[in-house]
Amino acid sequence: MSTFTIFLVLIIFVAFLLVVVVMVQNPKGGGLSSTFGGGGGQQMGGVKKTTDFLDKSTWTLAIVLLALILLSNIPIMGGSGAAPTDTFGDEAIETPMLDPTATDADTDTTGQGN
Fold first, then answer.
1. pLDDT tens digits, one per residue of 62-106
2. Helix, strand, coil: what percent of the chain each, to 5?
3. Main subcellular localization, coarse class (predicted)?
4. 60 is a domain residue
């Protein structure tokens, strides 16, 4: 299993967790915390602590996801950033070079010449 594949699996897993944590929250202050007693302030079951946990876990997962996405570019570039490789790291990408000494007559594609 390549390094890029490992990063890809981790990114998908963290993204799934982030979606789950965001969907549990309610933008009006309800969500999971309202299921355990609702209301405001510190009540039985630690409703305020549940909201704090969901908020901190959202930020943590978002930061981890961003870091994984940025780190996943290292294996694509080959670790050194010297020569770009294709997505699967098989071989370096070849770019065609133009001949600086060629004239328009050399590159005439009409077949008429000079």
1. 999 999 999 988 877 765 555 555 566 556 556 666 766 766 665
2. 50, 0, 50
3. membrane
4. yes
Domain that holds residue 56: 48-72
In a domain, 59, yes or no: yes
pLDDT in tens, 35-48: 555 555 544 555 66
Q: What does each C-alpha distance from 33 to 22, 30, 57, 77, 92 come to in angstroms? A: 13, 6, 14, 44, 53
Q: Is residue 65 part of a domain?
A: yes
| Domains: count for the chain | 1
Are 103 and 113 within 8 A, CB to CB?
Answer: no
